[in-house]
Amino acid sequence: MKQFEKSFTQQEAIPAQGIKDAVAILESGRIHRYNTGPGELAETSLLEQEYADYQRARFCLAVTSGGQAMQIALRAAGLRPGDKILANAYTLAPVPGAIHACGGVPVFVEIGQDWLTDITDLRAKAASSGAKFFMLSHMRGHIADMDAILAICEEFGITLVEDCAHTMGAKWQGKRSGNFGRVACFSTQTYKHMNSGEGGFLTTDDEELAARAVILSGSYMLYERHGAAPGDEVFRRIRLDTPNCSARLDNLRATILRAQLTQLDANCERWNARYQALEEGLRGRTGVEVVERLQCEAYVGSSFQFHARVPDIPALVAACGARGVELKWFGGAEPVAFTSRYDSWQYFGTVDPLPKTLETLATTVDLRVPLTFSVEDCSDIAEIIAEEAARLAA
Ligand SMILES: *Cc1c(COP(=O)(O)O)cnc(C)c1O
Fold it and tell me: Which of 1, 133, 245, 302 has the smallest set of CB atoms within 10 Å of its CB?
């Protein structure tokens, strides 16, 4: 019997250039983004310029985490304590955390069997709740029908905030994920598409939102040192009514991200080759249901989901685990290691049940696809899962 030996949490090394630049920053001692000489643009500001170019957004702000990017984006977009906000019920814990930190009141929207936002439920809840914000998580890289979502936002006057933690580099109908809403948030935490340990970005084309976000991130009124921020006149309008919440990225992490950005598109292709090996190995196998991706979606396959069609899913997770394949199951009653569900966020009080979401998550199994795995590794992983699923299928 095949046994898989590699770690599901081992990322690749930082590119040599990033290590060299990081050492130079350490030698200089100038790690703070505003610790610059006259006319000098800090590594963090250069990174903002480069990411804005990559994303094709007017403005970019680098911050300390994806969760901070979301909190800042929501505040800068005008969410106030007590405001309702639509949010998909399938997402990672920093998303409800950011909503809670801003005092937002979530109205959770169902997902379908394809993990995409349920458009009918979104429309119904937009109409019934009167919410003026929608925090859309492209969870695990699945991008819903953006035309339908934009039409609903337009009809009900809703500000769309995109959580692109799993769609950095992805596109929908040729347009980059993150360029559909008023503001987009990204994470550069170790398990995302670029790795600075912790970190994040916010991008927008809206100059007032961008200026507020810079002040919120803690600019100490040194905003003119940013790389992709609006002009002084925009800051003068808002700078005294926007608080400093200290979430600045530093030059050390910026150097290692700059070195990775040049490789991002190539890495997205490498992820997809691995994803497709998993897909091929699992498609049509007993006890496993693969959901086909949409043609209009240029996804980044940094993780893989399938529905387990076996009576005892914990037994499948355990059997694969024993053979070195680490699966996550979203159907468990208790959140474990990165899985969580809306009913784990009890700080919001009781929320209306979401039967479709629960039904989908009850059979949802997820695995990470680090780039330290080869394409052959992914075929081996698929074979192990398929063997165990066939054995356990009634
Ligand atoms: C990782 C992640 C975030 C942000 O996470 P941080 O750890 O705060 O950078 C946001 N949304 C989703 C869906 C994520 O997976």
Answer: 1
Query: Given this model, what pLDDT does residue 343 score?
Result: 80
Q: Which of 15-29, 141-155, 335-349, 375-389 has the lowest mean pLDDT?
A: 335-349
At which residue do the structure tokens 């037994």 appear? 315
Q: What is the tally of helices (H) and strands (E) in the chain? A: 13, 14
Mutation pick for ligand 1 pocket among 11, 163, 187, 198 (CB with most ligand atoms within 8 Å): 187
Same domain, 38 and 178: yes
Judge whether 28 lies within some domain.
yes
DSSP state, 194?
S
- Number of domains into which the chain is organized: 2
- Is the pTM higher than 0.90? yes
Which mutation among 71, 92, 190, 194 tests ligand 1's pocket best, with the greatest number of atoms within 8 A of CB?
92
Same domain, 286 and 175: no
Tens digit of each residue's pLDDT (9 = 90 or more) over 164-177: 999 999 999 999 99
3-state SS, one letter per residue, for 175-234: EECCCCCCEEEEECCCCCCCCCCCCEEEEECCHHHHHHHHHHCCCCCCHHHCCCCCCHHH
β pairing state of 183-187 and 159-163: parallel
Q: What is the mean pLDDT of residues 182-204?
A: 98
Helix/strand/coil for 356? helix
Check residue 338 and give its pLDDT: 61
- On the CB side of 107, CA atoms within 13 Å amount to 19
Closest ligand 1 atom, residue 137 Cα: 13
Task: Provide the 3-class DSSP secondary structure of residue 250.
Answer: coil
Sign for the CA dihedral angle at 267, 162, 299, 354 comes to positive
* Domain's final residue, options 228, 244, 261: 261
Pair (270, 185) in one structural domain: no
The answer, yes or no, to whether any atom of ligand 1 lies below 6 A from the CB of 199, is no
Residue 22 has pLDDT above 70, yes or no: yes
